[in-house]
Amino acid sequence: MEQDNGAGRAAFSWNSRYIFQSSTPPPIQITHSTAHHAKKKNPTMRSLFLLPIIWHLVLAASVRSIFLFKDVMKSNTTALKTSGFNTLIMFGVGILSNGDIMYYSNTPESQDVRIASGGVYVGGDALAQKVRSLKTGETGVTRLEISMNAQNVRNLIMTPGPGPETPLFRNFQALKEAWTLDAVNNDDESIYDLNSSVAFGRMLGQIGYKYTIAPYTNAQFWLNVKNQLNQGLKEQDRLLDRVYLQCYDGGAYNNPPGWQTFLGMKVVPLIWVINDSKPVYGATAAQARTRLTQWHQQSTLAGGGYWNDYDIEKMGLSYRDYGNVLASIFP
Prior knowledge:
Order of helices and strands: HEHEEEEHEHHEHEHEHEHEHH
Helix content: 25-40%
Radius of gyration: 20 Å
Shape: globular
Structural class: alpha/beta
Strand order of the largest sheet: 1-2-6-7-8-9-10-11
Strand content: 15-25%
Distance between the termini: 27 Å
């Protein structure tokens, strides 16, 4: 998901393995309580009976996601909160060589903001309040993530390391608290260093984050990351708990059922909405419904999602139309 006039990507190489490729090409667009008083040592039979049901409901919850490319201070917050999405992933977070964290606005007339430095949140109250508001008030959003590339991660994991006294650890800890974040999404599309990726993921887990990935190729690398981060963990406890699979641009021919088989876990396919950056990869809400339904019928998916809010607003599209597609297929 590298930046390119609003939403493009750098050059890619096709994955030649059939299992990862869709049998049909992507659509082409030519237009732009009471429990507090319960006895702790002797839970009731009712409680014991309800626990597995609750876990089942948590695990069965479908993902309805959208990546936020636009400066969150200028995005349509109300639409994002009320159009059927339950997961928002803020794109454009990066790590500097000293471990400071930046938020890149990706929006004309907006400025990039240093948001964590020296183990302290420094992004300002207005930005923090806006981000936190995504999960409060009238909202369907229950999970908030940030998406970042792997720049400087390898060097910082080597020196000074991922320990709790390092700038990297303390800055991510401060950001989690300031923004009430749930997960960090690794959008590595070029470095693919296994040791540092795993160490970074484990560091985030110590802080309390979940770890997610957004691959478009190099499935073996991502399988290795997933296996190491989730080794010995039960499904409800796994650290790497979501895969947002890019099914556009470099991943245009990706086949989600094939990726699910290879990775051994459900995935969330991402479709690019109508856009004027690379319109050939854009999909209307109706086309997104067709593709997601076909994949879901082939092999039950974890949910679905879109790249990105910037183009929905720029192209005058409807959040509700795209959100309704996800809500109807992944209730």
